[in-house]
């Protein structure tokens, strides 16, 4: 996940006595285990208010998010703002995550400060939600499944656009986009799995070509908002002719 976003799959399974329990990344999202606060209490926190406002703007105006929301709906997984998104405080190293146990996207209100960042995090996590909806993803036991979704999220969310890479002081020409996608996928796996770097790298490398070239539902790599708008328009018109037959 880009910018340190980590994606916890479903709730951690309990292991036998004496065996170290893997929390599957939930340690990065401490509010997941707390009793929900009342709306009145949450509304008093500026971070929470700002997070909700930025989220609403993303869902209403960002073409990446709009395309994914429509694709999820067509796949039978309609997303509702108050049900499927949660603004919470997280560990300082992450910006968001997808909790497959609740089909809920976590947005780290203490770490997302700019609208452009919110746009990217929401898009990234919606790609995981789309993968969860359309495929039988084994988030727990199959690191290749996790690697594939992380590759797709890094590739299609705008995490690796030229401007974002320049902002990170990373430069490159031939193959730089692929390098960025690979590196960010590996980093995301390491954030939520207690596996070695070698294991994460192997999983990413083994599925990279197939998952990098899986461009659903965009049909292209959206390198900019203009690309995303064109992809959204194409998606809306995808069934125009066959629907009239």
UniProtKB/TrEMBL annotation:
Region (Disordered): 1-27
UniProt keyword Protease present: yes
Broad EC category: hydrolase
Keywords: Hydrolase, Metal-binding, Metalloprotease, Protease
UniProt cross-references to InterPro entries, sorted A to Z: Peptidase_M76_ATP23
GO molecular function: metal ion binding; metalloendopeptidase activity
GO terms of biological process kind: mitochondrial protein processing; mitochondrial proton-transporting ATP synthase complex assembly
Keyword Metal-binding appears in the UniProt entry: yes
Domain of life: Eukaryota
Similarity annotation: Belongs to the peptidase M76 family.
Protein name per Swiss-Prot or TrEMBL: Mitochondrial inner membrane protease ATP23
Species, as recorded: Dicaeum eximium
């Amino acid at each position: 996940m880009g910018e340190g976003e980590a994606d916890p799959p479903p709730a951690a399974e309990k292991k036998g006595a004496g065996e170290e329990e893997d929390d599957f990344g939930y340690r990065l999202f401490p509010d997941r285990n707390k009793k929900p606060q009342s709306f009145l209490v949450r509304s008093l926190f500026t971070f929470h208010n700002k997070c909700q406002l930025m989220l609403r703007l993303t869902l209403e105006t960002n073409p990446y998010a709009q395309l994914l929301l429509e694709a999820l709906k067509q796949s039978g997984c309609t997303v509702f703002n108050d049900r499927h998104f949660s603004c919470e405080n997280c560990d300082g190293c992450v910006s968001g995550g997808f909790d497959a146990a609740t089909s809920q996207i976590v947005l780290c209100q203490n770490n997302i400060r700019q609208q452009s960042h919110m746009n990217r995090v929401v898009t990234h996590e919606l790609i995981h939600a789309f993968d969860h909806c359309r495929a039988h993803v084994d988030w727990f036991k199959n690191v290749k499944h996790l690697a594939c979704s992380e590759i797709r999220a890094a590739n299609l969310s705008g995490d690796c656009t030229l401007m974002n890479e320049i902002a990170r002081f990373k430069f490159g020409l031939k193959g730089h986009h692929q390098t960025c996608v690979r590196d960010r996928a590996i980093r995301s796996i390491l954030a939520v799995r207690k596996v070695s770097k070698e294991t994460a790298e192997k999983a990413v490398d083994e599925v990279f070509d197939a998952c990098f070239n899986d461009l659903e539902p965009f049909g292209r790599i959206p390198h900019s908002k203009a690309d995303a708008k064109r992809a959204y328009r194409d998606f809306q018109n995808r069934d125009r002719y066959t629907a009239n037959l």
